[in-house]
Amino acid sequence: MTQVLSNRLFWIWSVGMLVVYVGAILIVVVACLVYAGVGNIAAAIVSEEMSHSTRLSVATATVSTLLSLAIGIPASYALAQYRGQFKNIVDTLLDLPIVMPPIALGVALLVFFSQFPSQNASVDKWLQSLGKPIVFEVPAIVVAQFAVISGYTLRILKAAFESQDPRLRDVARTLGLSRWQTFIWIELPLSANSLIAAMILLWARAMGEFGATVILAGATPGKTDVLPIAIFLFLNRAEIDKALAASAVLIIVAVTALFLFRQLVQKRL
Question: What pTM did the predictor assign?
Fold first, then answer.
């Protein structure tokens, strides 16, 4: 009897904590959406200011995600296959973008572009001479987003490649396929769901990136004001309704991305 009561109390306690946690998240999200109001959200979305921020966010997040995948796919494959003595060191270095606060990462990027190798001969000055400046320009948004999401790209795709049966690769090689052919025709298709899931999650993360972006790209209205920066600017101007509307858009994007991600992960399992 005592054991049954103890088990029941434990179950009530654990489920209760889950309900409290889920409820807290729902209350915060619903409060934001309700306070903003459907009318205000619709009006804010169609406004020129919000339309610009939304278009800029979608465009930069898409470019940074595709760039991250283009570099991350071969890099994560190499990382999954690497078994050398420096594996732990490499893993630690590649995890830095994940554990570093985005604002600190933004400062590091700003120093690299504006002060390296010297203030008078920096990377950004060289790019300016080519007519392609980075700092406080739209390309800086892509660079900041890429720097933040790159670590996640490597982790997700590395896990996908490591989960594959190595015997499939060995059989393909014995049948005469080259490394390129084995990767393109065998290993990449097996990771298709993981690639799509990674793309969705990375895109949503890039859409919500603020810390590194505001340091490297600045917060110029009508120029570098992606949605998170637009929220910051709205709050500075005490335009609470617009800030909540922009927040609601990002919440909807995040919920949709997470739902699609879960669906793809479940299909993979």
Answer: 0.85
